[in-house]
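Chain A, query sequence.
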Amino acid sequence: MTVDEVMAALERAWNAGDGAAWAEHFTEDADYVDALGRFQKGRAVIAAEHQKILDTIYRGSRLRMRLLSSHTIADGVLLVHSATTLDVPAGPRAGRWHSVQTQLLRDGRVLAFHNTMRTAVADFSEQDEEYARLSPLD
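Chain A, predicted structure.
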């Protein structure tokens, strides 16, 4: 699969609420670091952990993924950066959330995935105005 095909498949699986379909696009031995910094090892764990959140805090959510960059780093291995927007209709995570991902794809499957939630520098620094003014990015 191409990078665009993998991202489209991940988006479809998430929007269907299907953790197994999400994990199907990962290698059997994939590494996954979620937005909370928790490490998940292997397709089965990734499937189970995603089904938990798709059935609870992200039930009915809609994910949109877009490619930021993609570079070949070895034969059959790509370094990919993507951005996501997640719309959650209800519950403790209701609202719109933005994240950035770093992925390694090997032969069309995700070998490693690191998800980082985006937040404003002012929020991160507990409303420190001076620090927020120094923020080099949006």
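Residues 27 and 102 are 15 Å apart (CA to CA). The first helix runs from residue 3 to 15.
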